[in-house]
Structures are given as structure tokens and as C-alpha cells.
Amino acid sequence: MAESFYGGRRGASVVIVKSYDSIAEMQAEFDSVECTVDYDSYVVVNTSVDGIESSVLYRRTLDGPVKVGTLGSSSGGGGGTSSGGILDLVLTIPSSVPTPIDGQGEYSKTNKSLVPGYYTDEEGNPVYNDSIKWVYTNVISEDGTSSKTYVGFTFPYSIVDFEASLVDKNDENNPVIKRIDDGAHPFYNKWALKIPRG
Q: What pLDDT, on a 0 to 100 scale, did the predictor assign at position 8?
């Protein structure tokens, strides 16, 4: 027998005569009197791309199936996660995943990840930011072996407004401070201050 290019002896040829969707299906046929697979023949079990028994080669013997080896492998390595502001996420997603997979950032008004709980728009209308928001995307490397998840957040910060008025110092029916907004907005509240005269 001729020696191989890699220095070892040439291996035996393998002919796969049948494919099964599961080990149980293979075992059931091997146990059946109507089995069409001859002894010392090779079969393959294909469960799923990432299944632990996917693309596994077996040989039928008198003692049952014998695992010969694996013809494939599961998909690429684990991914990483990066978080930051929504503006960072939208503008700076790379074309491929950096190596090593790590990162850092900050939440700030500059990258629009910190937003006021209340403000007025250009037309003077009130605008409320009542919830924490996020957006995410998966980026897969060009060779398909790794992926990274980018997550962007916006966090509203509380806005507290005050409305002050002068009251008679002898008026005991008016509380000195009282919340006067409707309480519908978690990052906004407004208070009335009663300041006694004199």
C-alpha cells in the first residue's frame, strides 16, 4: 500500500450506506429482523447542526453500533456583548467583530443615552420620557466563527419643577410644600412652594 503525502499509511475507504435522524432510529433498525444495513457497514446520524450527535459515523457490528468518529463540528464560538448609548450603537457598529471581545462605555447626555424626563419642544409643547428604552443588534464576523451583540440604552433622569407663591404667614390651612402634578410620569414631578410673607 502506498504511503500518504502526510507520512502515514493510507486509510481505508468508507462508504456510508444510510443516514438516520437519531441514534434511537438507527438502533431500532439494527435490532429489526428487516435491517438492510450489513454488518461492518457504515452509517451516519444527523440530528441537527449543533446537536451533540450530529454527523457522527457508526459501524454496525455483531455487538451493536460502534461509534467511529465525527464528520463535522458544531457552529462557531460564543459571542460577546457590548453596551452603550443608542447614538453610539447606531453610529459605530463595526463591520466585523473585534478581537478580543470586550468593551467599555458610559451613559451620558452627549451620546443621548441620558435624556430628560421632561422638556418642552421647539413649539413649547411638553414632552415626557417615561420609560427606559433599548435597542440591540447581532454582528457576525466575516468568517462566521463569532458574533457580538451590541445593546444601546436611553435612561431618563428625573426633572423636578417648582412653583412658588407668597401666602399669609398666619394661614395654617396651606401646606408649605405640595406636589401638584398628576403623578402620571415617573421621571417628572412638580411641587408648589408656599412662602409666608414677612
A: 55
Q: Which three cell numbers stand for residue 176?
A: 408649605
Which is more confidently placed, 66 or 89?
A: 66
Contact 3, 9 (CB under 8 A): yes
pLDDT tens, position by position, 107-152: 777 777 888 999 999 999 999 999 988 887 777 767 666 677 777 7
List the beta bridge partners of residue 134: 153
Give the Cα separation of 19 and 10 in Å (integer). Answer: 25
Strand ranges, E, within the chain? 16-20, 42-45, 56-61, 64-70, 80-85, 114-116, 118-120, 126-128, 133-140, 147-157, 159-167, 177-179, 188-196
What b/e string do you get for 67-106 counting C-beta neighbours within 10 Å, with b at 16 or more? eeeeeeeeeeeeebebbbbbebbeeeeeeebeeebeeeee
pTM score above 0.90:
no
DSSP secondary structure letters along 6-54: TSSBPPPP--EEEEESSHHHHHHHHHSTT--PPTT-EEEE---TT-TTT
Average pLDDT over residues 159-169: 88
The radius of gyration computed from the CA coordinates of the chain, to the nearest angstrom, equals 34
Residue-level pLDDT at 127: 93
